[in-house]
Amino acid sequence: MTGTDAAPTRRRPTLDEIRSWPPTVNAERAALALGVSRAYAYQCIKNGIFPARTVAVGKRIVVLTSSILAILEEEAGPQS
Fold first, then answer.
1. Are 62 and 26 in contact (CB under 8 A)?
2. What residues contact 34, with CB distance under 8 A and at least 6 apart?
């Protein structure tokens, strides 16, 4: 299989990169940060079990970047 045959892999962003994001992001970007698929993120949002805080903006659902950071910083533990 050549490089063009494989599906592109998106790298999970670092905490510093996420800190530079706007206050809200779409579910796809939040899923990437949390290490889950886009489809799973939407399923969790629909079922009310997505770990990050979501807000409806019209028909769109956005995720608060601060809530993504809180989850990931807790997961990372105290910094030395």
1. yes
2. 41, 51, 52, 68, 71, 72
Residue 6 lies in a domain: no
Question: For 30-54, what is each residue's pLDDT tens digit?
Answer: 999 999 999 999 999 999 999 999 9
Whole-structure pTM value:
0.81
Distance between CA atoms of 41 and 1, rounded to whole angstroms? 30
Q: What is the total count of domains within the chain?
A: 1
Sheet (strand 24-26) strand order: 24-26, 60-64, 54-57
User: Residue 48 in 3-state DSSP?
Assistant: coil
69: tokens are 């950071």
Please indicate, yes or no, if residue 5 is contained in any of the structural domains: no
Model confidence pLDDT, tens digit, residues 69-78: 999 998 877 6
Parent domain of 56: 15-76
